[in-house]
Amino acid sequence: xxxxxxxxxxxxxxxxxxxxxxxxxxxxxxxxxxxxxxxxxxxxxxxxxxxxxxxxxxxxxxxxxxxxxxxxxxxxxxxxxxxxxxxxxxxxxxxxxxxxxxxxxxxxxxxxxxxxxxxxxxxxxxxxxxxxxxxxxxxxxxxxxxxxxxxxxxxxxxxxxxxxxxxxx
Length: 169
Ligand SMILES: C[S@@+](CC[C@H](N)C(=O)[O-])C[C@H]1O[C@@H](n2cnc3c(N)ncnc32)[C@H](O)[C@@H]1O
Hints:
6 helices; 26% strand; binds S-adenosylmethionine; 36% helix; 7-stranded mixed beta sheet; Rossmann fold
């Protein structure tokens, strides 16, 4: 579920990182809410989806989005090595790497910046004891990790498939 433009329209949010863009719906929604000097870096490993996304950015005449097409782990390392910092990071790619993404994002986020993570309720399966498949357990472990993380203030917003919003202390 994409983040609505109104949710991110804040004078404190100028630089956004999105991990997992698909055809660009959430990236475009967020970029449209940025000020004119804002920037959104969108990461996706799929050139097919990224080309499609770019066609929508062009149609919307939206020029604040920079796409990086490669596995997100590699892009994150490059962003970290070049000391980039963001005001908002949206994590919405492969669930196997959520923990890696989250930990790296904590180094990329500004103090008081937001890390938003999608799909944390996993269709409600995280609270169903009869569900023990790989992905349900990955999300469960991820949620437990964030719950005990004192580096952030956090809450789960139970809309769509569940968002966790973390504010870096
Ligand atoms: C759920 S979709 C993103 C949806 C998008 N955020 C939205 O709300 O419109 C997940 C995307 O993550 C990308 N993805 C999956 N694994 C990835 C990886 N290891 N590195 C980068 N992107 C990845 C997929 O190609 C897919 O486009």
